Amino acid sequence: MTFKTRRYVFWFFLILFILAGTGAVFYSSGWRINFENCSPQLSLNCMDIQKTGAMLVETSQKNISIKIGDKIFTDKSGILQSGTLIGNLLPKNYYIEIEKNGYQVWQKNIEVKPALVSKITGVVLAPDKIEKQLFPLPGKLINFYFNGKEETVFQNENGFYYNQKGAP
């Protein structure tokens, strides 16, 4: 190999290293190319480079499933981790559903901002079947809800209770 050829090979790999290193630094910093606005035709005009955000979901129940759009994420909370972190989300509003068998679905619109984590805490899933008990409630009342069926659901430190409207 001649000296001139070695020089070309050196400069080629140096430029390749700089480009790949710059791409790796931007990717690890959370920058992504947004292809959502692209048409089926290949065009460089539609590409949008944005910094990603994340969403942290903390619930009182374990083994939940989190649905964001068409994607389903499983619960990753355990002994060392108290919630589920969902990363690499482009900045926009997301419709989120938290589900578990035997519980009602929790739904909300969440805004994800660039370079920030949207934290969802205090999610309590209400059971599908709630035990009916008469008043007064044992213990201190923590919270109450109206379920739209002329029933009031009460929560205390022992669990959930409900009473129909007009019952003693």
**How helix-rich are the residues, as a percent range?**
10-25%
Could you spell the SSE succession in H and E letters?
HEEEEEEEEEEEE
According to DSSP, the number of beta strands is: 12
The biggest sheet amounts to: 4 strands, antiparallel
Please indicate the percent range of residues in DSSP E strands (runs of 2 or more): 35-45%
Q: Segments where pLDDT lies below 50 for 5+ residues?
A: none
Mean pLDDT: 83
Individual helix count = 1
Note the gap between the termini: 97 Å
Shape: elongated
Radius of gyration: 26 Å
Strand ordering within the main sheet: 5-4-7-8
Structural class: alpha+beta
Describe the protein's architecture and organization.
The protein is an alpha+beta fold and 168 residues long. Helices cover 15% and strands 41% of the residues. The protein contains one helix and twelve strands. The strands form four sheets. The chain has a four-stranded antiparallel sheet with strand order 5-4-7-8, with no helix packed on it. Strand 10 and strand 11 form a beta hairpin. The mean pLDDT is 83.
Keywords:
4-stranded antiparallel sheet; 3-stranded mixed sheet; 12 strands; alpha+beta
SSE layout and pairing:
Elements: H1 3-28, E1 31-34, E2 48-51, E3 53-59, E4 65-68, E5 71-74, E6 84-89, E7 92-99, E8 106-112, E9 117-123, E10 141-146, E11 151-156, E12 159-164
